[in-house]
Amino acid sequence: MAVGMFIFSHKQRRKLFIIFLVLNIIQILIGCGMTSSSLYIIIAVSPILHTDRAEVNFAFVVTGLYGTHVIFHWIVGINICNKCFKQAHKKSTSNLFLLWSCLGTNTVLNLLIVSHFSRKINKHIARSIKQSISMGMSNYLQESMWKETIDKLQYSSHCCGIDSYEDWHKIKWLSKYHVDVKSTAVKEFHTDDDLTLPVTPWSCCKVDFPMQCLHDPLQQVHYAHMWVDEPKIVLDSINTKGCMMSLRKPIDAMINLFVLLTSLICILHVIIFIISRMLYTSTRNAILLEDPQGLAPGWIFGKGDCGYSGGKTLIEIMASPRKKVVEEIQVKTKKDSKSGQTSAPNKTVSILEEKQTNHSVNPTRNSTLLREAQKDEKSMEKSEMMDNSLPVTMEEELRKLQQ
């Protein structure tokens, strides 16, 4: 017994071919989106990081490679589509179609596995980024590499600290070699044994702030009272949001996009497989029935697939549809013959009236017009007699359908 069997005409098979082709193009575009999003993270986001660059690059190189697999696989699918519609009778088409379907299923399964673990990878990347920024802030004045990295991150992303600007007030990035611990300004802001002061780097400053940026009360001694009297102005002059959100936002977006695209690829793969099977089997069966332009059954799985020999033969499957078509033709023929008999006299009268009306100004032609109308009536009666004399049998109609 065939699974998911439908009978298609040649016109319907052409529509399946077009749908198959369009879905392949959509899959290629999805693969391009997957690859380009991965490249964006590698090129635009990864260079900002330092210690986690290798991990982020590895994760998105994997997703980018699977995107290229999707592109390549469904480019081949366009060729398979042409073969299923135009060369379904060849054994090579059957082998290529089977191999292509298996490779596509393997690609989709791998994408589902990577998509499942991408959430965990995202959490691990977030923890690594947080540790990396914290390390960079601690060594901000110790190593020039970290200073350059943090300044570039904060300036380009308009952020400050990890989660907020207050992280600079909590992390010990200033030492006794950078500030005079005995000065009055330090004693005024220094409240514990740890040297944590309300100082932020210049890269935390807002570019569009109309006044002087208030980021360091130790150096900006004349404005030191602003930290106590006008704290709102101090906060308005610097970026208060943390850099963690700025870094995580594109990565989270790309991970979510990867999961969404994987889901779409999986759904479209199932639809493409069903449509391609219908197209291939119907085209092949039409050739086996020696009627490539006629009706033929198509199925997902049926007789002749993978050595399966059960179920009805093609002749048995097509016997019922052809019988139905013949019955419809017989009914239509009888209706046409009946309507033709009743309408013939009326048609003669209408011809006479029309011609007499159009040529009433010329009485000499009326006799000629009457003879022409009578001649038309006789020819119609003769054709009806011939139609009624021809026996319409099942064998003749089947022979017409096969031709």
From TrEMBL:
It comes from the Eukaryota. Residues 332-403 are annotated as: Disordered. It is found in: Membrane. The keyword Ribonucleoprotein does not apply. Residues 339-349, 358-369 have a biased composition (Polar residues). SUPFAM superfamilies: Tetraspanin. Pfam families: Tetraspanin (PF00335). Its main location: membrane. It is a multi-pass membrane protein. The chain crosses the membrane at residues 16-44, 56-76, 97-117, 253-275. Residues 372-385 have a biased composition (Basic and acidic residues). GO terms for cellular component: membrane. Keywords: Membrane, Transmembrane, Transmembrane helix. This is Uncharacterized protein. The lineage of its organism: Eukaryota, Metazoa, Ecdysozoa, Arthropoda, Hexapoda.
